[in-house]
Amino acid sequence: MNQPGRIHCTCVDITTAEPVYEEKEFFNVLPVGSTKYQWMRFVNTVGKLPPYHIHPIGIPTVLSELLTEKKNTFEPHFKPDLLKRTSTVYQFRFTSGEDFFLSVSQNSFSFNEGRASNPTLTLFLDNHETCWQLLMGTHDGMDAFMNGQYRADGNIVLSQLLLYLFKSADPAVAFKVQD
């Protein structure tokens, strides 16, 4: 039961509606003039704060620079006709590392920091390196799945097509040689 001067509320991220933190106590401080000031104490962190709470807007982050570098690397290998869709958004969520998403349209693609508001497919990976290896075709998707490094929620066909969206045309790079 709440006592006078104390309330309990959960603050949510307005873009994803996921809880960010719980505020369990608010204390009213002495009024100054006609204005009351409040002090709050954060008791329980529920989820991780979205990236826009961590980094000021307009200042490049390590992740944004990495995503720009990877876009330049993948651009020559991009196969826009592979998906046969006007727009697809792949959300990448990581056990270790910041989340990002890939937006693919008919003729272009972009990597973006954070979480997409309405992704077509969500991919869960162990780390960024596994993601880049899968996208370039240097790591087999089935091996990654069987080793618990990769899983997808959503349209499984789109997750398989993603593995070929940037795959190099060089057979020495694209395929694992088996005896």
Overview of the molecule:
This protein has 2 domains: 9-49, no CATH class; 58-174, 2-Layer Sandwich (Nonspecific Lipid-transfer Protein, Chain A). The model is unreliable at 1-7, 23-55 and 172-179 (pLDDT under 50). A hairpin with a 5-residue loop joins strand 4 (87-94) and strand 5. The protein is globular, with a radius of gyration of 22 Å. The strands form 2 sheets. It has a 5-stranded mixed beta sheet. A 3-stranded antiparallel beta sheet has the order 1-2-3, with no helix packed on it. The chain is built from 6 helices and 8 strands. The termini are far apart. By secondary structure, it is α+β, with helices and mostly antiparallel strands. The chain has helices at residues 51-54, 62-74, 128-136, 141-146, 156-165, 171-174, and strands spanning 9-12, 19-28, 38-45, 87-94, 100-105, 109-113, 121-125, 150-154.
Summarize the structure.
The chain is of the alpha+beta class.
Kindly list the characteristics that best describe this protein:
disordered C terminus, 5-stranded mixed β-sheet, 8 strands, 3-stranded antiparallel β-sheet, Nonspecific Lipid-transfer Protein, Chain A, 179 residues
